[in-house]
Amino acid sequence: MRKTILLGLLLGAAGAAAQGNMPLSSFEGQVVYQVMPDRFFDGNAANDAGVNKGDPRAWHGGDLAGLTAKLPYIQKLGATAVWLTPIYQQQAQNSFDTAPYHGYWPADFRKVDPYFGTLNDFLAFIGATQKGGMRVVLDQVINHYGYLAPAVKEHPTWFNGKAECDASRQKDIDCPLAGLPDLNQGNPQVRDLLLGNAGFWRDQGVSAFRYDAIKNVDGPFLGDLLAGDRAAGIWTLGEWYNADTGTVAEWQRRGFDSLFLFSLQTAMKGSIMAGQGLDGVAAVLSRQGELPRPGEVALFLDNHDVPRFAQGSLFEDVGQARTKYGLRALMTLRGVPVIWQGTEIAMRGGADPDNRRDMRFEDKWTPQEKGVFEVAQNAIAVRQASPALSRGALTLLKTPPGLADRLLIFTREQEGQRVLVVWHGGKTRQSYSVRLGSLGLSSGDLPVIQSLFAGQNAKIKVSSGYLHLSLPPEDAAAFKLN
Ligand SMILES: [Ca+2]
Ligand SMILES: [Ca+2]
């Protein structure tokens, strides 16, 4: 026990020193593309034993060789970083009639599962990303092993059992998540194992970690883990399911560079996909001042744990149109946009595993899917070409009374460049005339105005102290002001 405390103090001191000397890692300006390798692309049929593409709960054969082969596709979309769900060696058997294709049932944290390939395949992928100037975010599991991992029987003292769970006052931390064998990070062997895992993968050339289920992990251990990452220049992204602005702010203060802002995803899906007012989005954005580092927060329309964004609409064509709106809207926000594979073509799917259908590439697309991709590609390019959109401060403007459900207006500003952003929830094309003074703008603030997104007809004019907007239905527009 004493040894543990001393080691903790030492690491804490090293962490503090590192924080003092090292600039904080940043992903501001990046666009992340999220991949679940088993469901992305099969680049090696030799590791496909037992694959059954007809079963959504089975292995589907996608692998690291396939991911490397399709890296040009991700680059063509315009993403600058790739987040892979875990690639570790998984438990050999199924649980609940489900194979560990998703990567969250690890058996060995320092081996690559043969279905995904080898460590050399991973290094080849890293090499290809580095050649393309891209970054890699690797998913790290720190809360549990897979249900049937050999370690559970080999090292019973590593895990919180029923007694520990019953006695705990922090049930989220010391009780099993979905029944998974829960690691006791207070055990020095477990601690060293997990800190060592982080070091092992850092050494393979990753830029960032996405830490799974941080709500369920011991806080002091997380502090030590983050100190090590920070000292090594690794960006850390925590997953706290359903986190709101307050939770993200708290964990940024406690050392994470970023968390996923689930509350914004909920509000965006509600307003863009389900016809709720845009005031719900404004309410989330109005809290950004609470965030220590708003530019680092991870923003998303959907991911592998929630139903697909496009699934929020009954009809496929409506889902596609609203996904275009969602993708444009996402690219106007302050933070780090994360696009889950297939959202760029408005793939559909309900709850897990239906939201993890195999990725489909260009040769299989309908003209409508191609249309969604082109909007995604353009929106990303517009964001990347604009310092204001990619890194600028966001200032929410006051929407005139009675319009807050239909209009969301804000500016993004960086290096003297300014962009005016308008989201329009109206169901038909509509014109609005808003007094500049009521938005907190003066006419002198709006010298030259240029619409930024291609393929949409959004217009803006300033005259006699009014901002006149002519907006397509259900879409987000961005206008460069100078
Ligand atoms: Ca394969
Ligand atoms: Ca736990």
From TrEMBL:
UniProt key word Chaperone: no
Signal peptide as annotated in the record: 1-18
Keywords: Carbohydrate metabolism, Glycosidase, Hydrolase, Signal
Domain Glycosyl hydrolase family 13 catalytic: from-to ranges: 34-383
Gene Ontology molecular function: alpha-amylase activity; cation binding
EC identifiers of the protein: 3.2.1.1
Keyword Acyltransferase: no
Name of this protein: Alpha-amylase
Annotated source species: Deinococcus marmoris
